[in-house]
Amino acid sequence: MSGLRRILLINPTITRRRHARFPLAVLSLATALEDRYSTQIVDGNVDRDFIETALESLARGTIDAVGVTVMGGPQVPTAVAVSKAIRARFPRVPIVWGGYFPTLCPEVSLNSSYVDYVIRGQGEVALRELLDAIFAADAAGLASIDGLTWRRAGEVVHNRDRAFSTAPLAVRLPYDRLDDPAQYLGRTYLGRRTVGYQAALGCRFRCTFCGVAAMFGGKTAMPAAERLEQDLTTFRDRYGCDAIQFYDHNFFDREVDTVPLLEVLARLQLPWWCFARSDALINLSGPAWKLVRKSRLRMAYIGAESPSDQMLHDVRKGTRSSQTLEAVEVCHRHGVTPELSFMVAPPDDPEGETEKTFDFIRSIKREFPATEIMIYVYTPLPPQRAGANVRTTRSPTTLRDTHGQPVVFPTTPEQWAEPAWVEYWCHNDAPWLSRRLHRRIVDFTTVLGCRFPTITDIRSPPWSKQVLRTLAAWRYRYRRYERPWELDVSRKLVRLHDPRASSL
Ligand code: B12
Ligand code: SF4
Q: Is 437 close to ligand 2, i.e. is its CB under 6 Å away?
């Protein structure tokens, strides 16, 4: 065994086994630590006893520190559970949290007995510096680690933000270190073995509702085309990959930077899916669209957010509703399915904005019925510390619940792990939503989803989708969304897929 200190990196369970994709956060950290530390990865998406596995590793006495990646929502309860279990049995082992949840809620994360350090933002270099300081017992050194939130004499200290780094684009991830890497390539409507892959880093926009700005501060960087080609060719030749789901926050950045990547994709011709902005799509040139068609882009997920230009302006989206419509048209013209995501029920006018959004969705469906629709509740980011890298439209402290009382956000990870707050983070519910409006959103979503079953659902047989379509037709036509019990029952029987929970 090497004399290196050993770090356990944990990806707590967030999704079902068959939806598990490469755990990119822990793989990135393992690569970054490589020359100084020995690492072990535990992935709760494939190892359903991941807490037991982590404890067994620690019981062998060879683990010197633990890193846990935490996304808000359903990963908070599992991250709390594994961290608590480790703290109870091995109280002296330092536990570090990183990822979107601790980046957005660093103080809350530390308000627990089982998180010692929080890394905000990109973690590769910060974690290495932190481990170096911990093992050198260099308490003074902690103060100079950018992106670290920690406790000094009981008081929470937020070091300054870490500058955006493009260094991760220079390395390739060690996928072969995972047990059976091929198990991470899942069957989706794109292909039999779909890989989840991130090509570029960050996002140059700073929409006020989005956690990505807190992670990257409005910065982005594109990878070299050679890196993309090498990675995708390896996935194809070594693991049998036949489709790609890009995790890039905005695949279509500046055309001049995107074209070399499109050329790679046009050579490989593996069906693919990506996040894209409407303004970028409508401004793509003819030659770029030609590459897109050749490359077999199947679906583009576009953050339409709202039909209201005022709201789009208020959340600093930087696009207009007319651009959403143009993007839908241009996508259809080029054989790409647009998948529009909307945020309904904003706190200022939940009912009115929701109805306007429903009407907008109906008008799009009339003209382009193949457009896919995702409906979320608008849930602003939780309160941020002073000086955080996030711009908010309004202070969350001004939010009121349905009784007119100020919304009190969780102050501990356990509170964020409660079902109501998991729903908040997943954009499914909010304290200002009346039960009536919540019901109406759920009912509309059900009727719409049955009237136009998503093409991403490959498990339900075609006949069952036809049955749902027929059953839902009159409700959709006459806007009779309320209590669609017959659709609820039928949907459960055919187990209709909901891409909001597990993606493709
Ligand atoms: C894959 C993915 C998922 C998968 C999870 C994995 C799987 N299938 O196996 C699934 C589909 C389950 C998922 C679910 C959700 N997701 Co998600 N997801 C992603 C996605 C596309 C990629 C994540 C990834 O691998 N990134 C690449 C790695 C390298 O980056 P990273 O995770 O940020 O890690 C870096 C740092 O965060 C940090 N770090 C991370 N962990 C750690 C740990 C330690 C110890 C340290 C030191 C540092 C550190 O260092 C890393 C390297 O720099 C991201 C978008 C994106 N591109 O990141 C959204 C994203 C993270 N998801 C998001 C959200 C909100 C969700 C949901 C909670 C809600 C929703 N409606 O989408 C749902 C839950 C749904 C439900 N009802 O269950 C948001 C988070 C923003 C926020 N406000 O919290 C993102 C950014 C998408 C977005 N733009 O809105 N997701
Ligand atoms: S919503 Fe999209 S464009 Fe806006 S900051 Fe988030 S990832 Fe970037």
A: no
Residue spans of the chain under pLDDT 50: none
**What pLDDT is recorded for position 393?**
61
Residue ranges, CATH 3.40.50.2300, the chain: 5-158
pLDDT at 254: 94
| Ligand 1 pocket residue status of 71, Cβ below 6 Å | yes
Instruction: Give percent helix, percent strand, percent coil of the chain, each to the nearest 5.
Output: 45, 15, 40
pTM: 0.97
Instruction: Say how many residues make up the chain.
Output: 504
CATH class of 185-378: alpha beta
Q: DSSP H helical segments within 19-121, as ranges?
A: 24-33, 50-59, 75-89, 100-104, 106-110
pLDDT, residue 494, reads 77
Q: What angle do CA 86, 92, 95 make, to 5 degrees?
A: 55
CA 97 – CA 30 distance, rounded (Å): 15
Q: What's the token pair of residue 324? A: 């959403």
The per-residue pLDDT for 498 is: 82
Rounded Cα gap, residues 123 and 494, in angstroms? 42
Ligand 1 atom 63, closest CA: 71
